[in-house]
Amino acid sequence: TFPGPATANVRFAEGVEPEAAGDEAWLAAWQEADERVVAALPAAPVFEVARAVWDAVGEDGLLYVGSSNPVRDLDLVARPASAARLVLANRGLAGIDGVPASAIGAALAQAER
Predict the structure, then answer these.
(1) Residue 95: inside a domain, yes or no?
(2) pLDDT digit string, tens, across residues 32-82
(3) What is the pTM for the complete model shown?
C-alpha cells in the first residue's frame, strides 16, 4: 500500500531491472580515497575509543552504537568490515528511552552473540 494519496506526480513501477556492473575503476578510486581519509584521521582520543570498541566486539559479535557522532566515528575506523559482525544503530531515536530499549531488544533477540 502507498502511504498517502497518489497524486499526478507519483508513478508506480511493476518491477526494476538491474543494469550491468558499473565502472570498476570508479569503485577502486572511491576505495583508495576512503583509505586515504582513514589514514589521515588524527590520533584523537575519540577515534582511539572507537577503534578499541570495534576490536573488542569480535568477528561474530553484536554491537549497538548510539546515534549521531558515535556511529560516525565508528564508521570511520571500523576495519575490516565483517558480514558476521552485527552493528546496529537507531536513526532519530537518540533519547534516553530509545537507545537503551533498542540495545536491550537487540541483545535479547541475539543472545548467542
Answers:
(1) yes
(2) 998 888 888 888 888 888 889 988 988 888 998 887 788 888 888 887 766
(3) 0.59
Q: What tens digit of pLDDT does each residue of 9-29 get?
A: 787 788 888 887 778 899 899
Strands 86-89 and 62-65, bridge-based pairing: parallel
Task: Say if residues 63 and 87 touch (Cβ distance below 8 Å).
Answer: yes
Range of the domain at 77: 44-112
Residue 57 located in a structural domain: yes
Of 66, 59, 55, the C-alpha closest to 88 is: 66
Looking at the structure of the chain, the number of domains it has is 1
> Coil, strand, or helix at residue 10?
coil
Contact 106, 98 (CB under 8 A): no
The answer to whether 110 and 62 have CB atoms below 8 angstroms apart is yes
Ordered DSSP codes for 26-86: HHHHHHHHHHHHHHH----HHHHHHHHHHHHH-TT-EEEE-TTHHHHHHHHH--S--SSSE
